[in-house]
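QA checklist item 7 of 12: single-chain prediction sanity check.
[x] sequence parsed
[x] length recorded as 154
[x] structure emitted
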Amino acid sequence: MIDFILKFIELVINILNALLIPLIAIIAAYIAYQQYSINRKKVKLDLYEKRYNIYKTTKKILFTVTQDGKIELKELKNSIIGIKNESKFLFNKEVVQFIKNLQENSIKLNNLNNERIKTTEQQNKANELTNWFTDNYINLEDLYNPYLSFKNIT
């Protein structure tokens, strides 16, 4: 009887030893998958933060022009050139083109303001550009929403 119990215990130990290696492999695979999942979410969050910074800068430029009717050339250079270059890698062509238009219209408006708007034609161009900034400030979220929606992050 003791012999039977010892053989049974030995059998159980052998079975547990045989199951230990696959169990360790399963646990390691689970940990690896969790790390992969966390890293994917981190990359998406980092991408979101970069896109959000471009959105904030764009909104700030549009707001400044909408409020003041102008933008300083120094602020324009510091803001737009950085986001224009970075946006090529973070957004589709529509957003990149919008930022390019933002830069061009900012320069045009700045030039008109520097010329001290003398003619009715210049005033109409300045008003048209200011309206462009106002309209795009109002509709900016629609342009960036596909990239900044939280349902697209996870």
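[x] summary fact logged: The CA atoms of residues 42 and 48 lie 10 Å apart.
[ ] second reviewer sign-off
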